[in-house]
Design a protein that fits this description.
Elements lengths: L4 H30 L3 H5 L10 H20 L13 H17 L12 E6 L2 E6 H26 L6 H5 L3
Antiparallel strand pairs: 1-2
Helix pairs in contact: 1-3, 1-4, 1-5, 3-4, 3-5
């Protein structure tokens, strides 16, 4: 049995988004224990020229949502970028997880032979679907997930590798 584009993309992204949701709980508990507004953690970054935690979540969810929809030849559901609180981020994660879990496996049938167009830096970029998934979606998604974890860990939230790979 060969690995399908669906299996290469969707289950891992769902698991990672659920893991992000779980670490947000840990971050909120950590902030409460330190008597710090949790939005401080949501605005934290690793370096001054990097995007904050909340934007890492946004980028990970946008990559997952858009990537899966494009590969499945579905409309990308609208999800405005209005995330300001922990509850907003958790709601975003829940909506994207629900969308990914609703994508029928069969919509990926033949995806490896498709081309995908996405606007990047204001330009339409067209990729063979395999290149899009393995060279753009997966690396981009896991970059933002990893940075989100690193930001919280850097700020003292007690999370580790087990939190990142939970659910395997």
């Amino acid at each position: 049995m060969s690995l399908s584009m669906y299996d290469a993309a969707v289950p891992g992204m769902v698991r990672s988004l659920k893991n992000l949701d779980a670490i947000i709980d840990k971050a909120a508990a950590y902030a409460a224990g330190k008597k710090v507004d949790p939005t401080v953690l949501m605005a934290s970054r690793l370096a001054i020229d990097m995007l904050p935690f909340s934007t890492q979540i946004h980028r990970a969810t946008e990559t997952a949502r858009g990537g899966a929809a494009r590969l499945a030849q579905m409309d990308i559901p609208s999800l405005p970028d209005e995330d300001k609180t922990v509850a907003d981020l958790r709601d975003r994660l829940a909506k994207v997880i629900a969308f990914l879990e609703s994508v029928p496996t069969e919509t990926f049938t033949g995806a490896e032979d498709r081309t995908v167009t996405q606007k990047l830096a204001g330009n339409d970029m067209t990729f063979p679907a395999k290149q899009y998934l393995f060279g753009f979606v997966i690396p981009n998604f896991y970059f933002h997930v990893t940075i989100a974890f690193a930001i919280l860990r850097h700020n003292g939230v007690e999370i580790g590798k087990a939190d990142f790979i939970r659910g395997i």
